[in-house]
Amino acid sequence: MKLTKKLSDAFNEQIKAEMWSSNLYLSMAVYFMDMGLDGCAHWMKKQSEEELEHAYKLIDYSMKRGGKVVIDHIDAIHEKWENPQAVFEHVYSHECHVSELIDKLMDLAIEENDKATQEFLRWFIIEQVEEEETVQGILDKFNIFGVHGLYSINHDLGKR
Ligand code: MG
Fold first, then answer.
1. How far is residue 56's CA from residue 102's CA, in Å, rounded to a whole number?
2. Which of 21, 31, 91, 152 is spaced 20 to 30 Å from 48 by Cα?
3. pLDDT one-digit tens code per residue, 84-94
4. pLDDT at position 160, please?
């Protein structure tokens, strides 16, 4: 049973969103490299790589299920950040947004009565819980220690 056209199109939208996320985090990595915060930059590069892997997972699955994969153009990143904490606040709100997108994809898989896709998407749903939790943990440190915590946050994130 092939992916329905609706699901195949929705997968393409999600592939695009994951690739945009990858570029967003790469832009954040550059922001941190500019500031000399190598640990934060390293964390963002890893984050960027992970988002690309998410895109690959979606591409592979759609192909396997006879979907029509389209690699579309990715919108430029225009975001600017006032300080390191604002960057991580943006990561958090962005990941919450991605969680909503995945939830909507799951809603569609249920609507289309595609059980295999529902199973496939469960991994992404759990992954989003982890993404939100990890960034929340970093933000907690900022909230407790403020800019004074930046040195140790940078050091810790370099170990990812
Ligand atoms: Mg992702």
1. 15
2. 152
3. 999 999 999 99
4. 85
d(CA 81, CA 83): 6
* pTM reported for the whole predicted model: 0.95
Whole-number percent of the chain with pLDDT over 90: 96
d(CA 140, CA 152): 13
Taking each helix axis from N to C terminus, what angle separates 84-111 and 115-145, rounded to the nearest 10 degrees? 160
Going from the Cα of 52 to the center of ligand 1, the distance in angstroms, rounded, reads 8
Span from the CA of 21 to the centroid of ligand 1 (angstroms): 7
Q: Where are the alpha helices (DSSP H) in 36-83?
A: 38-64
Question: Which residues have CB under 8 Å from 111's CB, separation 6+?
Answer: none
